[in-house]
Amino acid sequence: MESISTCFGVKFGHPTKNSHDSRRIRRVGIVGLGGFATKRFKRTSCATVVGDREIDLANSDWKIGFKEDFERRFYIPHLSDVFGDLSPMPSTFNLKSRRPSHESGNGYPYERWNGYVKNNDRVLLKVIKFSSPSSAGAECIDPDCTWVEQWVHRAGPREEIYFRPEEVNAAIVTCGGLCPGLNDVIRQIVITLEIYGVKNIVGIPFGYRGFSAEKLPKILLSRSVVQNIHLDGGSLLGVSRGGPNVSEIVDNMQERGIDMLFVLGGNGTHAGANEIHNECWKRGMRVAVVGVPKTIDNDILWMDKTFGFDTAVEEAQRAINSAYIEAHSAYNGIGIVKLMGRNSGFIAMHASLSSGQVDVCLIPEVPFELHGPHGVLRHLQYLIETKGSAVVCVAEGAGQNLVMKTNAKDQSGNVVLGDIGAHIQKETKKYFKDIGTSADVKYIDPTYMIRACRANASDGILCTVLGQNAVHGAFAGYSGITVGICNTHYVYLPIPEVISYPKNVDPNSRMWHRCLTSTGQPDFF
Ligand SMILES: Nc1ncnc2c1ncn2[C@@H]1O[C@H](COP(=O)(O)OP(=O)(O)O)[C@@H](O)[C@H]1O
Ligand SMILES: O=P(O)(O)OC[C@H]1O[C@](O)(COP(=O)(O)O)[C@@H](O)[C@@H]1O
Ligand SMILES: [Mg+2]
Questions:
Q1: Ligand 2 within 6 A of 174 CB?
Q2: Which range (28-37, 61-70, 248-257, 485-494) has the least confidence?
Q3: ipTM of this predicted complex?
Q4: Is the CB of 297 under 6 A from ligand 2?
């Protein structure tokens, strides 16, 4: 291994499908003395691999190499890359009609609407300039934490468009599990398509399954159909896991003449969307496939947050508060709340932090023991003895090593999780019985109630902007992209980058430490 003072091994390879390995590869590229990366991974060599390019930090021009590689990784595919004969036309997305014109003589000056975004506009992906690799959360490329701008493409309407609105056949599909805000996004996509002048908009029923040969009836969409759908949770179109393969999906799209596809879903859905995009272009189909990340778990990379997450955290407060009241009102009461989060504990962490009523927060990223002198149960005993009650908030994917494995998978291939909440309840009851202390243990599982909620106001706005930008991206001729909010600005990202591995809670992050400060819990092992 090279010495830290002379040479830092930094790797930025495209990760493999295994999320944990992938995260390692990605994280090892960051120099941070106090961070997750350097504690777990040794530095490799002087050669730095950025994408598929090797960069030598000893070379004074390494920054140029890094930037070029970053630019290439975050390039967003455009129809004109493949279809050379395309000629754009002036956008039909024009809000001038909403302004008083100079002819109207009502005193308002005529102005040209300048709400278009230029293709070369960019948004900074990282906004902190770290002074040292030992600074909290530092993500440095070299030991000096040299500042290197990492730009991504700004989302929004372009002045020129690559589809004739009156000829467009647009389709929307919602895949995976439910998430608050799905209807808000569908609504905005439809409304924005209509503003461009699109007449043919269909909803594909029940996720990718709606593309199968069974021929589930399509859902005709228009402003009047979607006007009030955001008042309800769920998805107007229905959702599903599993379904036909990509080739069948594209066959079906070809049959129906779909040339704009809006795909709302998580990591799995986006993997499918990217394959659909590739297959369409391979077949010479001039199709724009644009994703809108949907995951209540908030486990998509690079984004400030995904829609539905805020609502989930807010709704989780009700369950936590109920658990608190139950626990607080009972003699030696213990309330356990399970929240969603298959691999990522963002909902549990944020809900625990915002409620201020949680004593123990357990997430998949942080291993824990139930039994033993440092286990959760011993701490619950301490809480009962000192406070008289306790509240536990556990993410569904936490402590899966403690529950019975069935090796079952759902139709998308996701592992079916054991019920960690029920397990903790059972073990807690047994523990207190064994030590001869009566304890009143209540378990609340609000997961599906939370997921079925309608979006709150803040998510409603996020959905609106994401939905509109998805349509702008398609009309601008981009495909194989997804939309997101990044440092409060809206961006287009290439799908492979956002699904290269799932975003997790960093146990060394300031946020997790804040959560621990709030709960006052020790390490449980
Ligand atoms: N790697 C993949 N490639 C192509 N399609 C996938 C992939 N993973 C999942 N899918 C499809 O995407 C849809 C949703 O996937 P799922 O994992 O259930 O939800 P999410 O998109 O929320 O992660 C399913 O119809 C599934 O068949
Ligand atoms: O019971 P279902 O529909 O499989 O959903 C459960 C899963 O849905 C989620 O909320 C989100 O999953 P997706 O993003 O893959 O839809 C997970 O937290 C949870 O494990
Ligand atoms: Mg998934």
A1: no
A2: 28-37
A3: 0.96
A4: yes
Would you tell me how many other CB atoms lie within 10 Å of the CB of residue 275?
A: 18
State the Cα–Cα distance between residues 475 and 464, nearest whole angstrom. 17
The end-to-end CA distance of the chain, in Å, is 31
277 SS3 class: helix
Q: What is the CA radius of gyration of the chain?
A: 25
| Chain segment 292-303, per-residue pLDDT in tens | 999 999 999 999
- pTM for this entry: 0.90
Q: Residues at the annotated binding site?
A: 177, 241-242, 266-269, 295-297, 340-342, 396, 448-451
Q: What is the 3-state secondary structure (H, E, C) of 389-442?
A: EEEEEEECCCCHHHCCCCCCECCCCCECCCCHHHHHHHHHHHHHHHCCCCCEEE
Q: Per-residue pLDDT averaged across 71-98, rounded?
A: 89
Name the residue with higher pLDDT: 2 or 481: 481
Q: What is the DSSP string of 90-148?
A: E-S---GGGSPPGGG-SSPPP-----PPPTT-EEES-----S-TTSTT--BSSTT----
How far is it, in rounded angstroms, from Cα 428 to Cα 323? 15
